[in-house]
Amino acid sequence: EVSTEDPETAFCTLANREDLNPEEGSIHHCLYQFTRNENLTETNKLLCDVCTQRRYGPKKDIKSEKKYVYTNAKKQMLISLAPPILTLHLKRFQHAGFNLRKVNRHIKFPEVIDLAPFCTVKCKNVAEGNTSVLYSLYGVVEHSGTMRSGHYTAYAKMRSMNNRLPDLVLRGQSPQALETEPGKGQWFHISDTHVQAVPASKVLSSQAYLLFYERLL
């Protein structure tokens, strides 16, 4: 319940969001917008049980919904549990009148991403004192075509074994640093039965639909 949270840390993150200054059209900007602070006012006011009880008494004694008290509030969605595997699904469609239209805009994404600016300050699975929550890219799904038809292909990275990832997945242990080298490994482009080695630059220039990252720190 919100009432049990420390109001001083309710909207705090592991790393300062204001230092980001994310570039528009990047995955950082998408995450920044998704986790932005929202003001709930007018028709979006929050039903406040505490305010209602102060004015009208216990909720069970309220006969009419008109007696509920709504109040202005702030809302923010942050990550409370850093996952072992991070999957980012980009919204690749928009409404055009009564129709849906595919969004073909390129969204920039890095090989290593830090989720700390989007995690609550009390985020679970993060070692005390850590101000970074790092993830390394290992897979991308791309879609070519339209909303009605098209073809899915994938980019996958063959890299060294992440030996401690099973501990994080199965036992939820907070890692100090997982044993993997994000800069090393060969990328491959997979289209049906055709597999071809490609440079990282080709992967990063793709029109990503799904992004797969694994936890480093």
TrEMBL record:
InterPro entries: Papain-like_cys_pep_sf, Peptidase_C19, Peptidase_C19_UCH, USP, USP_CS. Residues 1-216 form the USP domain. One of its GO terms (molecular function) is cysteine-type deubiquitinase activity. Keywords: Hydrolase. It holds the Pfam family UCH. One of its GO terms (cellular component) is cytosol. GO terms for biological process: protein deubiquitination. This is UBP16 hydrolase. It comes from Oceanites oceanicus.
